[in-house]
Amino acid sequence: SLTVLQALEDGLKRADADPSVKAVMICGENGKFSAGADIRGFSSPTRRGSVLGPIISLIERSEKPVVAAIEGVALGGGLEVALGCHYRIAHVKARMGLPEVTIGLLPGAEGTQRLPRLIGVPAALDIITTGRHVPAAEALKLGLVDEVVEENTVEAAIRLANRV
């Protein structure tokens, strides 16, 4: 939602401006990182406020390490947010993907550019063109995530942020 996008943008800007903040961790609520955009918003005649692409670029440009703590699903725009992060930790049961292609849409927040740079063109093309959900173990093998944990993902992400 636009509310979530605005909160993410505001939080990132505050963290970047605050010298006491050494790293940023992005997570979802209720055991889910993000299922992406609400498709009902695509038909809105006017879209005010933040859009996802520039927010992901803001994440990517942060001089402070940004860690994604992925639980549940990181799909569509949710995966694109995670791709903008410098590090990604996933719970063993997490799934990631760009399923919007299954309804005829292309990922719109530069996921089609970031994913191949991260995991290589052949693997990225498979994920981009099929819309399949990649389980955490496979995501680790592909290099999509840096670590897979069975424990609390947020705590693991904080430990990683402290290490880097």
UniProtKB/TrEMBL annotation:
GO terms for biological process: fatty acid beta-oxidation. It catalyses: (3E)-hexenoyl-CoA = (2E)-hexenoyl-CoA; (3E)-decenoyl-CoA = (2E)-decenoyl-CoA; a (3Z)-enoyl-CoA = a 4-saturated (2E)-enoyl-CoA; (3E,5Z)-octadienoyl-CoA = (2E,5Z)-octadienoyl-CoA. InterPro entries: ClpP/crotonase-like_dom_sf, Enoyl-CoA_hyd/isom_CS, Enoyl-CoA_hydra/iso. Gene3D superfamilies: 2-enoyl-CoA Hydratase, Chain A, domain 1. It holds the Pfam family ECH_1. GO terms for molecular function: (3S)-3-hydroxyacyl-CoA dehydrogenase (NAD+) activity; delta(3)-delta(2)-enoyl-CoA isomerase activity; enoyl-CoA hydratase activity. Keywords: Isomerase, Lyase, Multifunctional enzyme. The keyword Lyase applies. It comes from the Eukaryota. GO terms for cellular component: peroxisome. Belongs to the enoyl-CoA hydratase/isomerase family. In the C-terminal section; belongs to the 3-hydroxyacyl-CoA dehydrogenase family. PANTHER family: 3-HYDROXYACYL-COA DEHYROGENASE, PEROXISOMAL BIFUNCTIONAL ENZYME. This is Peroxisomal bifunctional enzyme. It comes from Charadrius vociferus (Killdeer). The lineage of its organism: Eukaryota, Metazoa, Chordata, Craniata, Vertebrata.
